[in-house]
Design brief:
The complex is a heterodimer. Chain A is α+β, with helices and mostly antiparallel strands. The radius of gyration of chain A is 27 Å and the shape is elongated. By secondary structure, chain B is an alpha+beta fold. Chain B has one domain: Immunoglobulin-like (Sandwich), CATH 2.60.40. In chain B, strand 6 and strand 7 form a beta hairpin. The chains are: A alpha+beta, B alpha+beta. The interface between A and B is medium-sized, with 20 and 19 residues.
């Protein structure tokens, strides 16, 4: 006849765990709460509730037209397989939305309309473009905006990169000048 | 019926949300290197890993004359003789989808 093994009493800690484990799991519901501020901030940024971007640069005059430029995020370029990319948002002026066909962005003055840089996509009231930042960009570089109208005219305007994105300048300084 | 429609609408929304990020991360990439025999070999592609066969690649002089109009081959590369004049190479996958490489940025072998 086999005797049942004498049950050793569990340690107090284990007893506490066994008794309360299901109740304690309710605390897991608190975990998403920690992520919520970032989630709602991002949602507002993507929807445009917090404006054009995290940091509004201001108006850039491009011939008879103008556009309001903003950094999508107030930070340096993000890594991408195609090189570091910096996102900008822009809104055309109220009267130019009907007249402008395409808006381009480039570091340095474009050599031609074909090489005018990256194109802004989206509605005229909230367009976006991801600008590749070459590692050898000088800190005194200018950001050039090229606009092409439906009437066939093109106009250009520029803004210093240091004004458009101080975070990118800081990033370039941190990278050091590449040979 | 309404539930079905709602489910479908949600499905489409989710799918488009999924594809929109793919569309965003689709930047043109392009590099050139010098190879033996005064030749330059350029390779194009996109940041989602796809190649760029048939995409226009022009070698353009500093005076904006097109020295050598070309298209990338099936292997997304193009080899051409180094022009005597100053030039840059333009990978042109459509308006706003261009990459320029200046002759100064082409690594000598």
């Amino acid at each position: 006849m086999s005797k049942p093994a004498a049950a050793t009493p569990p340690s107090p800690l284990r007893a506490f765990w066994l008794k309360w484990r299901f109740h304690i799991n309710v605390l897991l519901l608190l975990v998403p709460l920690g992520f919520m501020p970032k989630y709602f901030a991002d949602a507002a940024l993507f929807r445009g509730d917090t404006g054009l971007g995290e940091r509004v640069v201001g108006d850039v005059q491009v011939g008879p037209w103008s556009l309001k430029l903003a950094e999508f995020r107030n930070e340096g370029p993000r890594p991408d397989p195609a090189g570091p990319m910096k996102s900008f948002n822009a809104a055309l002026c109220a009267t130019c939305a009907e007249q402008v066909k395409a808006t381009y962005l480039r570091i340095g003055k474009p050599r031609s309309l074909r090489a005018a840089g990256v194109i802004f996509f989206g509605t005229p009231y909230r367009m976006g473009a991801a600008l590749p930042i070459p590692e050898r960009t000088p800190v005194d570089a200018e950001l050039w905006v090229t606009m092409e109208g439906w009437d066939g005219t093109t106009h250009q305007g520029s803004v210093p990169l240091s004004q458009a994105s101080p975070a990118t300048i800081a990033w370039l300084n941190k990278q050091g000048v590449k040979p | 019926m309404t539930l079905m429609r709602l489910t479908r609408a949600c499905g489409v929304l989710l799918l488009s949300a999924g594809f929109s990020t793919v569309a965003l991360a689709h930047n043109p990439m392009f590099e050139c290197k010098e190879i033996p025999g005064e030749q330059i070999q350029c390779t194009g592609g996109f940041s989602d890993g796809s190649g760029a066969p048939g995409v226009t690649l022009d070698v353009i002089g500093y005076d904006e004359t097109i020295l050598l109009p070309g298209k990338l081959g099936q292997d997304s590369t193009l080899t051409f003789k180094k022009p005597a004049a100053e030039f840059y190479v333009l990978f042109d996958a459509g308006p706003g989808h261009v990459v320029e490489i200046d002759q100064a940025d082409i690594q000598p072998q």
